[in-house]
Design a protein that fits this description.
Length: about 650
């Protein structure tokens, strides 16, 4: 009998394909990892076999999710009963949310718009694609109120997902927007990094109003030559003038002076609003290039509607020019929501103070002075309050700790981190903190810290209270290997920790999309260059993943660029992120206040990075040194460029 059973089992295994047979007997973490690999490789048979496992594992929902995701990708009808059962079993989970999104995309592909509308309300955080598909579903089922919604949001949908096109074109066909709105969309797309998006929008123009595609390609592909060959009658049609504007805008990206010169030559044949638009586009490019003409060109743009980016850079160009009345006016012209951002509250206060309205300035400083942010710290200093050593976080009760320790999402996240599935672990962790109170998030931070997951500890504590929990938010791990390197390089430990916190959140295997690695996010080319500078003959790329070597190379690089950049931490922080040559180029012909230098950095990532590194540095210094710290002093003054 026993021999018969073994023979039957062997025959059953032989009936499986090779991949599925290889999974037989896998249990625990091995089964989870095998299922992950099966879905990545499209190995349907192995995935189905692994999903039949009955052992208890905290990540079993992932195996079921992967199987259902795989089934949704198949041509046969989706398994509605299995999907509904998953939603019931995993109600409220991140995986249920993801699977709903997957099913909704399949419904849209199949044209099942009624089913889409039934499932969509259960989504908690739909992305733009799914929101736009919801508009399409409503249109396809006769709900014309969608068109009014789209018309109101037309200007915000310039870079929208392709799924939005159906609703956008239906709104245009219904007459709720017209040719002017289409041209504005084309203008904004031409201004962007991918002007090719405008090609599709050109087809939305009424017949006879759209320019020839060949002319459009010449205008954006060879703008200088196109402008120089314009016929005298180019301005007779709207399309001719718009193509000239498109060419000026594209030329300004590479040759601002050339674009301005051609605008001067052509502007008398443009309408008033068209000239104003051209000046607004040139002003933005001049502001990026930190050229003094930006202020005058923004003024020449008059009351033409500006994008959020242009409104911000109108302020920054006035700051760079120390034109405080222009700063004040530009901030007062922002939208109400923008005026409430701490950045512009602070700079409006500074403008009031510069113009002698100290009481108004102090009122504005007081609105943000309790925030532990770049502008919150600066505002507090204006009120005579340097940043003092913060108090410790509140006590974590046993009950709160138990709540977090037994939370299914956090348990799944911890298992994912253990299996080095960081992307999934971060998603699961963040989803589990949605809507939770500060006590829960602080307990979650403690659990992350106890498990050495420093980035989740920091982010969880910050989510609970962005103006408190400093001992959990500003950790000092790896101090035994960091501090000796800091001392040998003669660096400020607070600055090193402030930079490292921003670079990697102390995640050893962190790797950026550009290839930077490790605790200090050292680029491969930078690591090789620094290794040569310090005589590290044994260097090879793999050493970047070693914490000791990574910190050694990173701190040496910090010292080298600090010495090359006036020993100024603001310049060196900018140089660490964007390269020393750019940090030098962003200086002015005159001495510049450090805060203005930081605010007018033309790279969004680097501007945010420098502000956060310097804020981190002040907070770390207060905690490590046990005395009040001045952000304003650390920002100091940036010397003129040579």
């Amino acid at each position: 009998m026993k021999q018969f059973l073994w023979g039957a089992l062997a025959a059953g295994l032989m009936s499986l394909n090779g991949g599925a047979a290889a999974q037989v007997g896998k249990t625990g973490d091995d089964r989870i990892l095998a299922a992950r690999d099966a879905v990545r490789n499209g190995d349907r048979a192995s995935l189905e076999w692994l999903a039949t496992g009955t052992e208890g594992h905290v990540l079993n929902p992932y195996v079921r999710y992967w199987l259902l995701f795989n089934k949704l990708a198949r041509p046969e009808p989706p398994p509605a009963d299995e999907l509904a059962d998953f939603f019931l079993r995993e109600a409220g989970s991140m995986l249920a949310e993801r699977l709903r999104g997957d099913w909704l995309r399949r419904m849209a592909k199949d044209g099942d718009w009624t089913g889409y509308l039934q499932l969509y309300p259960d989504l908690q955080a739909p992305d733009q694609e799914l929101r736009c598909l919801n508009w399409t579903a409503r249109l396809m089922t006769g709900d014309r109120s969608v068109l009014d919604e789209v018309a109101r949001q037309w200007m915000e949908l310039v870079d929208s997902h392709t799924a939005c096109e159906t609703a956008l074109r239906a709104t245009l066909s219904a007459g709720l927007v017209g040719a002017d709105e289409v041209w504005w969309r084309i203008r904004r797309q031409v201004e962007g990094k991918n002007p090719g998006q405008a090609r599709a929008t050109l087809a939305w123009l009424p017949v006879g109003n759209a320019p020839q595609s060949a002319a459009f390609e010449q205008a954006i592909g060879s703008p200088a030559a196109y402008l120089d060959r314009l016929p005298p009658n180019f301005a007779v049609s709207r399309a001719g003038r718009e193509l000239a504007l498109a060419a000026i805008v594209r030329l300004a990206r590479d040759d601002l002076a050339g674009a301005y010169g051609r605008l001067i030559r052509l502007q008398d044949r443009l309408e008033t609003g068209e000239r104003a638009y051209a000046y607004s586009a040139l002003a933005l490019r001049a502001a990026f290039a930190q050229q003094a003409e930006a202020v005058a060109w923004f003024q020449a743009a008059g009351n033409i509607p500006l994008t959020a980016e242009q409104r911000a850079w109108r302020i920054r160009s006035a700051l760079r020019a120390a034109d405080w009345p222009a700063v004040r006016q530009a901030i007062q012209d922002l939208t109400p929501n923008e005026q409430n951002e701490p950045d512009w509250i602070y700079w409006l206060a500074r403008a009031h103070a510069a113009e002698g309205r100290q009481a108004e300035a102090e009122t504005l400083y007081g609105r943000i002075a309790d925030q532990a942010s770049f502008y919150g710290l600066l505002a507090a200093e204006e009120l005579g309050r340097p940043f003092a050593p913060p108090v410790r976080s509140g006590t974590i009760t046993a009950a709160d700790l138990r709540r977090a320790e037994t939370d299914p999402g956090l348990l799944r996240a911890l298992a994912l981190f253990r299996l080095d599935m960081r992307t999934e672990g971060v998603r699961e962790w963040n989803w589990s903190l949605r809507g939770q109170d500060e006590a829960f998030t602080l307990a979650a931070a403690r659990i992350a810290l106890d498990n050495g997951i420093y980035d989740r500890a920091i982010n969880s504590a910050e989510r609970g209270n962005p103006n408190g929990n400093f001992d959990m938010r500003f950790l000092t791990p790896y101090r035994q290997l960091i501090e000796p390197q800091v001392r040998s390089q003669g660096l400020d430990l607070s600055w090193v920790y402030g930079l490292m916190r921003q670079e990697s959140r102390f995640v050893v295997p962190a790797r950026s999309s550009s290839g930077a690695q490790g605790l200090m996010q050292v680029m491969p080319a930078t690591g090789k260059w620094v290794a040569g500078k310090i005589g590290m003959s044994s260097y090879h790329l793999g050493l970047l993943s070693d914490p000791n070597t990574n910190v050694q190379l990173g701190t040496n690089y910090m010292r080298l660029i600090l010495e090359d950049l006036d020993n100024h931490p603001v310049l060196a922080s900018a140089g660490y992120n964007a390269g020393p040559s750019r940090a030098k180029r962003w200086r002015d012909a005159k001495p510049l206040e450090g805060a203005i230098y930081a605010e007018t950095i033309p790279f969004d990532e680097t501007r945010d990075y420098v502000k956060k590194v310097m804020t981190n540095t002040v907070i770390y210094a207060a905690m490590l040194e046990g005395r009040p710290q001045s952000l304003k002093n650390r920002l100091g003054t940036i010397a003129p460029r040579n």
